[in-house]
Amino acid sequence: MKVIRLAVVMIVILGLGYPLAMTGISQLVFPHQANGSMVYNDQKQAVGSELIGQSFESPQYFHGRISSIKYDGAASGTPNYAPSNEEMIKRTKEEADKWLAQNPGKSVGDVPLDLITNSGSGLDPHISPESARFQIPTVAKTTGLSNQQLEDLVKKHVEGRVLGVFGESRVNVFKLNLDLHKLIQTKA
């Protein structure tokens, strides 16, 4: 009987009390993050999460890393291929060829590595600032915006290292493209 009472008490404390307490604290202290880091348009409609990349196919937008899972959050993960894997080599070469076709005069060594490889989760919304700058001439040509306008936009979206130490500088492609879309709309 004592064991059953202990089990019930633990279920209530750890199964209900703790999750409810953590949810309440997170809603008070970090409400934006606790609710999925959602991004809203001017009409206050959720258009995505700043934590999950999205596929941008049009050449007038910046493109993120490739995703084996098509940015499907339910299928997070990616094949863990070795650099010598034939499928990985083929896919990487195909991606590099796509970027070179869009950027005449560039060589394979000019294409930033994060544009032709995917992240571990397949959901990463970030690219390096160099990858964003690499795309500026194509985006400028298709949107009619100047290289300087786009450079300023990229600079605005560069996020530094976490706590000034961890990781690398990065650009959130989703948020960058939302601001780019606004620029295109005001130009039209």
From TrEMBL:
<keyword id="KW-0633">Potassium transport</keyword>
<dbReference type="GO" id="GO:0008556">
    <property type="term" value="F:P-type potassium transmembrane transporter activity"/>
</dbReference>
<keyword id="KW-1003">Cell membrane</keyword>
<keyword id="KW-0067">ATP-binding</keyword>
<keyword id="KW-0547">Nucleotide-binding</keyword>
<keyword id="KW-0630">Potassium</keyword>
<keyword id="KW-0406">Ion transport</keyword>
<dbReference type="InterPro" id="IPR003820">
    <property type="entry name" value="KdpC"/>
</dbReference>
<comment type="subunit">
    <text>The system is composed of three essential subunits: KdpA, KdpB and KdpC.</text>
</comment>
<dbReference type="GO" id="GO:0005886">
    <property type="term" value="C:plasma membrane"/>
</dbReference>
<comment type="similarity">
    <text>Belongs to the KdpC family.</text>
</comment>
<keyword id="KW-0813">Transport</keyword>
<comment type="function">
    <text>Part of the high-affinity ATP-driven potassium transport (or Kdp) system, which catalyzes the hydrolysis of ATP coupled with the electrogenic transport of potassium into the cytoplasm. This subunit acts as a catalytic chaperone that increases the ATP-binding affinity of the ATP-hydrolyzing subunit KdpB by the formation of a transient KdpB/KdpC/ATP ternary complex.</text>
</comment>
<protein>
    <recommendedName>
        <fullName>Potassium-transporting ATPase KdpC subunit</fullName>
    </recommendedName>
</protein>
<dbReference type="Pfam" id="PF02669">
    <property type="entry name" value="KdpC"/>
</dbReference>
<keyword id="KW-1133">Transmembrane helix</keyword>
<keyword id="KW-0812">Transmembrane</keyword>
<keyword id="KW-0472">Membrane</keyword>
<dbReference type="GO" id="GO:0005524">
    <property type="term" value="F:ATP binding"/>
</dbReference>
